[in-house]
């Protein structure tokens, strides 16, 4: 299993507040170790890796998680608690 977290940088250069909250929860619950990659979706750069991934999966919200498992279609989670329940707690 491969898990990617995508965080957003807003047009003014600041990290989105929800992204900060989710990142803090991941740290507090020692869940960051399950992430394979963290990408940045920079609103100022449509070619940033996170923006490209958001476009590929047609995701409008950040943060989001992409879960890839061999032989399955990638799954996108835009809700932290659903991601934890369905991916990390199984």
Model description:
By secondary structure, the protein is of the alpha+beta class. The protein is 32% helix and 24% strand. The chain has 3 helices and 4 strands, in the order βαβαββα. It has helices spanning 17-28, 49-56, 80-88, and strands at residues 2-9, 37-42, 64-68, 75-77. Strands 2-1-3-4 form a 4-stranded mixed beta sheet, with helices on both faces. It is globular, with a radius of gyration of 13 Å.
In short:
The chain has helices spanning 17-28, 49-56, 80-88, and strands spanning 2-9, 37-42, 64-68, 75-77. It has 90 residues and is α+β, with helices and mostly antiparallel strands.
What's the SSE blueprint?
Layout: E1 2-9, H1 17-28, E2 37-42, H2 49-56, E3 64-68, E4 75-77, H3 80-88
Parallel strand pairs: 1-2
Antiparallel strand pairs: 1-3, 3-4
What are the salient characteristics of this protein?
single chain; 90 residues; alpha+beta; 4-stranded mixed sheet; 3 helices; 4 strands; globular
